[in-house]
Amino acid sequence: MAAAAAAAAVGGPQPPQPELPAPGLSLDKAATAAHLKAALSRPDNRAGAEELQALLERVLSAERPLTAAADGEEAAAAGGGGGPGAAEEEALEWCKCLLAGGGGYDEFCAAVRAYDPAALCGLVWTANFVAYRCRTCGISPCMSLCAECFHQGDHTGHDFNMFRSQAGGACDCGDSNVMRESGFCKRHQIKSSSNIPCVPKDLLMMSEFVLPRFIFCLIQYLREGYNEPAADVPSEKDLNKVLQLLEPQISFLEDLTKMGGAMRSVLTQVLTNQQNYKDLTSGLGENACAKKSHEKYLIALKSSGLTYPEDKLVYGVQEPSAGTSTLAVQGFAGAAGTFGQLDSSDEEDQDGSQGLGKRKRVKLSSSTKDQSIMDVLKHKSFLEELLFWTIKYEFPQKMVTFLLNMLPDQEYKVAFTKTFVQHYAFIMKTLKKSHESDTMSNRIVHISVQLFSNEELARQVTEECQLLDIMVTVLLYMMESCLIKSELQDEENSLHVVVNCGEALLKNNTYWPLVSDFINILSHQSVAKRFLEDHGLLVTWMNFVSFFQGMNLNKRELNEHVEFESQTYYAAFAAELEACAQPMWGLLSHCKVRETQEYTRNVVRYCLEALQDWFDAINFVDEPAPNQVTFHLPLHRYYAMFLSKAVKCQELDLDSVLPDQEMLMKLMIHPLQIQASLAEIHSNMWVRNGLQIKGQAMTYVQSHFCNSMIDPDIYLLQVCASRLDPDYFISSVFERFKVVDLLTMASQHQNTVLDAEHERSMLEGALTFLVILLSLRLHLGMSDDEILRAEMVAQLCMNDRTHSSLLDLIPENPNPKSGIIPGSYSFESVLSAVADFKAPVFEPGGSMQQGMYTPKAEVWDQEFDPVMVILRTVYRRDVQSAMDRYTAFLKQSGKFPGNPWPPYKKRTPLHPSYKGLMRLLHCKTLHIVLFTLLYKILMDHQNLSEHVLCMVLYLIELGLENSAEEESDEEASVCGPERCHDSWFPGSNLVSNMRHFINYVRVRVPETAPEVKRDSLASTSSDSLSSLQSSRRPKVLQRENSGTAQVFSLVAERRKKFQEIINRSSSEANQVVRPKTSSKWSAPGSAPQLTTAILEIKESILSLLIKLHHKLSGKQNSYYPPWLDDIEILIQPEIPKYNHGDGITAVERILLKAALQSRMNKRIIEEICRKVTPPVPPKKITAAEKKTLDKEERRQKARERQQKLLAEFASRQKSFMETAMDVDSPENDIPMEITTAEPQVSEAVYDCVICGQSGPSSEDRPTGLVVLLQASSVLGQCRDNIEPKKLPITEEEQIYPWDTCAAVHDVRLSLLQRYFKDSSCLLAVSIGWEGGVYVQTCGHTLHIDCHKSYMESLRNDQVLQGFSVDKGEFTCPLCRQFANSVLPCYPGSNVESNLWQRPSNKSIQDLIKEVEELQGRPGAFPVSISSETNLSKEMESVMKDIKNTTQKKYRDYSKTPGSPDNDFLFMYSVARTNLELELIHRGGNLCSGGASTAGKRSCLNQLFHVLALHMRLYSIDSEYNPWRKLTQLVEEVNSQQGNEEQQLEVPILYHDVTSLLLIQILMMPQPLRKDHFTCIVKVLFTLLYTQALVALSVKCNEEDRSAWKHTGALKKNTCDAEKSYEVLLSFVISELSKGKLYHEEGTQECAMVSPIAWSPESMEKYLQDFCLPFLRITSLLQHHLFGEDLPSCQEEEEFSVLSSCLGLLPTFYQTEHPFISASCLDWPVPAFDIISQWCFEINSFTERHAEQGKALLIQESRWKLPHLLQLPENYNTIFQYYHRKTCSVCTKVPKDPAVCLVCGTFVCLKGLCCKQQSYCECVLHSQNCGAGTGIFLLINASVIIIIRGHRFCLWGSVYLDAHGEEDRDLRRGKPLYICKERYKVLEQQWISHTFDHINKRWGPHYNGL
């Protein structure tokens, strides 16, 4: 805090300064402390104690103007330079001294630590810390371990994961309440308390005296610093300031806790001692300061809406006693707190938000108790007041850590937990007001999860502190603040209140910490039991749940599109899941056994009461209000889930917990409404409500919600259906789905409630719902494993899934303790039973596949269940996807070729309690519906689809499968005349009703309908299934005729039933309301007149099925009963051929089952088949109908045509893509007409991909190749050993770049530049190993002027592209490959080359002269410069592009900047870079031969033209032209000019031969003649061979040399001495011996020389290896210049094949005897003369610089292919080393560490700390290491990011988990292992420079990475 000086600075009065004790004392704190300690150790220590108190009074007095300091900014600055004042530091020093009792403080700490019984780890961490969780070892689901304890323990094979802490946590190692002891680490396994000595009394004696004062001082500061601002929103700034000033004090306390158990127990004593607290804080002493402090504390209490019990009189509550306030609201059993007097203090409630007046304040059952929960706080110890201030200050991190650090002390843990519970209500109030509620929530949970995860502790607090009461009350009170009136059902008179999802409390999930605590304590059995036994609590809880019942009501918009789409729905779903469903799952997990029946009865009882209250409150009678739906019915779902549990686990009798029929009818209404609304939403009837309504429909069935939402709803409907009258239920369903009017036999009808376009999908919806209702067995008898298997199969059938997405999609029991843990044994075993693993594969396009699971064949065969799939799909397309996959399986396995229908799957047997459900299948209403629909489908009425038929057949089949009892073979006696249906069907059994013939049906139709004309049959009365108006038919029509019934209407029927039940069960009083509901359904007046017609039907369900079979198969008489041929079928009915197939198969299967079930049916089927008649269309087809039929047919045909066209188009497109888009696969070659053309063409013809014209490239309208220029350092990364370097994962491992190709070349160039003339040095080497420019093309050409206009249009295009047009970037207009320049094609013929290739018979000497003359000509563009053509301009501009591609430092190597030699060197090096890279792409050698892929898409030919044109502008002075030195002997005179002062030229033997080759060729006029090329190669080969001999001679030792010198000399005079390596070698040795080259090696060099004896074979191999790189590059060059194919060969014959291909080998050369490289030599001048001339240069140099002379000799090139660093097998090794590693630049641990995979450098991604000139470190590194290409592994995300120039992209991960998937951002935290194939792909893309083409998602990085 600010010191006294600060106060003066502000201008306040100078306070007294009690900080400094008497001068005597201040001199030596240590002495004072020792003196006091001695005094206190005496038996009578009163004097010592008083003296100490006095000292502490002075040192730790809080009489300081803290507030002044906190108010004035400048004051704080004045106080000790902005930090805490000197006085505070002084005080802390005193405390440390006193604690140590005179000794050193550090020694004291060490001494105390020695007594630490470290049984618990207890390490506390804050957000973002990396911790571990092991499910195998955890008892509580919240268990976590710090990394150290985790790695020290043994968790092999366990189910663990690493995670980043969200809210902070603490390590549980050593705590057996939370985890199993087997998982403890080595340190905490030993129960060490026994062997720790007792703490000596005097060690901590001082602490006991000093600490209470110290803590009190801290509390006083906290009291002082807290100012209640006017708006009661403490300004963040002030609080933070106070906290900053208190930082050292709190840190001091934190350090004390880290001293271990001994010190913690002292602190516990101090914090919990009530006497100490009373003495110090009562404020009753004479000390004014203490008084003032106490007053501030009381004010803070009062302003928090809390009372301090003793001060009732002072600040008394004005109302009598809370108990008397009566705020009860009719219909509620009680809710939260007495809010009457709270309103005054809780400002939030006065915000005047909507409907505040209407909000119902509800009374609690026992208000006195709750008054104390909500409003009274009494602090009795330091701990309690400290927590109070911690809450007031909104949980500062430091305080939280201190309080948690103390937890390993058991006594403290209990005290603290009780204190925390005591403050629970206060925490909630503070949280509600907080602005930083997220941070605060995290900190609260950080504390509470440590306390409540421990069952023992939770039980204790529940018993002693009413934890459950407190939690429920607090939750209730919290929700009370945002209630609004419910608008469901009866808007005006509703008494129901619901939470308002738009409020911040719900939107921001502010309730989360409280709910999460509640779920946590309910997971303990002992606590949950108390809850389930306590009726009062259950009532309160149901009340709480009812706040969510019916929230977020949706009203269907009928006219306008809704203006504002509210997004509150997500808050509503989250709230129901977290606040209602999860506690429910928690409770259910304790109701697993028979003994817990009582609990279930309690819950069910109070649930039904709450539901009854709800129905009353919303004024519900029998009809739901139209056009509104809420997805939130938590009370229904509680009821359903507890019923399910009761039957499944507790053997309760279902009927004993079911209510009466009327209640069941009410219960089914709202869940049914939701199902109908789902169908409406999918039929686009809610489209005016915006997208959010679709979002709700999806969320409702989504995997995290479905088992708390749709599953209970369907189950509840199943229960209702099994207990209600089936006819009533079925008719309700069709009425809810609004399709009753459609179910008429007439071909036309009128639907009063539904538009025609929605009818079909609503009918499908209704039937699908019935199918699901009747076939789903999730809660009706399936075991947990069967459920898991069914869920898994459904998900896998929709799509192949990764392991993690499967875990996510399978609805697990949301409560973690429920046993079905994802990843548990059962999950893995079921998975391996139903699915096969597909390892991750790679497509050439670079799209990365993950490891997937795909269903096994037998699963498709037997377990594919379309019903389950439909239930679980969020997107409708997934159902289609499942069917497509099923179809593919059937085709592939040969089971069914056509388009199959969804298969019918056998169901698990029903649990006996639910047998009633099957009555739905045997009720007349359903049979009428099925009959009608079959008839309509047969007659092709509109609005019926195959899907409808499929469902109808499915329902018939279900009915046959579940027929109640085998029917007797005699005609079942017809039951007594049943009202109303008689003329339809005699009984209610489907088996017998199927064969019942129906002759006539009377229907109501619009007058316009065709049926009206046929009135001749009117005399026979009929029955009808018809529209809603039927109940109001004119009496005339309802005549009774013999045996026929009155007209039947579904709805009328249903009404009647409902009325009966209600009359039975309720008093007449309620009747008044009823009639009004029916009136809603009266028909709109505008409807056309309906009249009655009678249809002749004469069909039964069986006959309809058989005709349907004919219709589907398109053949007459297609059905033939199979049992007539094979009687076996009836005995052994399960026939695989019927399992899969289409509608025909389904019909056959059904008929077979019908025949099996009854002999009568069998007989009738046979009869029908004998009579077989064509399907009868209606008697007359009117013109109108014909029209519609034709129209349909035409439409169908048009549709088919369109499909056909589309398919054709798609296949065309595909084939085009395959030919044109070679982007994705660098491997496929595309023949392009660039390099080769037929001989008769005189000029090369190019197609422009923009304007589409073809033609030659001309001077004024040049054509160009689309190219991508990029700088590359791949070549520079080659090393000389095959093993790639490893990524360093310890401090010792480091990678040094000195052995890379780039480094070696650099050293060589700078060495040459030290001793030789600069211009000459720049011709002796190549550059471009780092930052060389690589040119690649997609092979497409365009006119350069077309390209310019294309670029212009791109520039004006506003669409955000992934590239920068200003930098010249574009994508090829044809194949979309990325490019950034255009390379002009040189005009001229392709055939020229043929003319030039004729072998000439000129001697080599003549050719040499020609070459020299051609080079000597002044360079110029073929056309005179004065008339600059378009072509030459383009050539220049592309050269500029090439230069600008790489950085200046990679171009300028000359000592004189900007010298032309530099450009010259750069240009031929570009050619070199491209050739070398192509060689690497071919694998480093040319054995594969052929025109490889690179060749087809290579642009080297064009590139050479451009380079040659520019190089010929720089002529080399003929004096210095190396060609002279190679081909002529120089007179002696010149060689004497080597004066000291003049720098020498580089000796020719130090020249790089490949560079010379490129220089010679590029200096020649283009196009080049083949014989000139061969001549140049021959000449250069002689030099190369000599270099090889020199290198060899240096390699071997003195004896070998003299031996060879001797043997060679003997053969010198033989005829082909010039072609014998022995002779030549001996000559070289003798020449060089004249100089000092071999001299000094006798001493230090001996060690290096290889001791191997050189055999002729090994020497030959050495010479060949030396020459091979040159031959390879030369062959490639020849291939590009002259278009000759490369021969393929074995590796060992590569040399001979290439040399003959290059024309070095005489053609007549015989290859019997072993091949000798020297035979390729063709010396232009006598060999010995020229060699001696070359050696002389070297000798004269080594005279002065022997060392360097040797170093500069060109060595055999040993470069292996470039590789990325080798990565370790397990990702954890990388992560553990790098995620805590400090950056070498800024020495901080980076937030986003990354490591370069090319060179292993560790960098800060996006780190501002390492930024240089606005470039962040990764971008900078990518320029230095890869010339603009960087490959980085992001340590915290396990992904690889590619930087290419100014763009970057996420490449993916090369580390996959055991299931073959990535774990981006390490979210799942499972162990990851290297995927070698992926790493190879990455390396391949790096080497082939195809990142730009293969990866699609690029974005600019603005140098910020």
Note down, in words, how this protein is organized.
By secondary structure, this protein is an alpha+beta fold. The chain contains 75 helices and 28 strands. The protein has a six-stranded antiparallel β-sheet with strand order 22-21-23-24-25-28. A three-stranded antiparallel β-sheet has the order 3-2-4. Strands 17-16-20 form a three-stranded antiparallel β-sheet. Strand 14 (1246-1247) and strand 15 form a beta hairpin. Helix 4 (46-59) runs parallel beside helix 11 (205-225). The longest helix has 38 residues, at 1183-1220. It is flat, with a radius of gyration of 46 Å. 47% of the residues are buried. The N terminus is likely disordered.
Unreliably modeled segments = 1-27, 63-84, 311-369, 815-823, 966-982, 1013-1048, 1065-1087, 1174-1182, 1220-1241, 1389-1396, 1419-1426, 1533-1541, ...
Instruction: Please identify the structural class as seen in this structure.
Output: alpha+beta
Give the end-to-end Cα distance, rounded to a whole number of Å: 41 Å
Strand tally: 28
Helix content: 40-55%
Question: Which value, in Å, is the CA radius of gyration?
Answer: 46 Å
What is the arithmetic mean of pLDDT?
78
Supply the number of helical segments.
75
Most strands sheet: 6 strands, antiparallel
Shape: flat
- Approximately how much beta-strand content do the residues carry? 5-15%
> Biggest sheet, strands in spatial order?
22-21-23-24-25-28
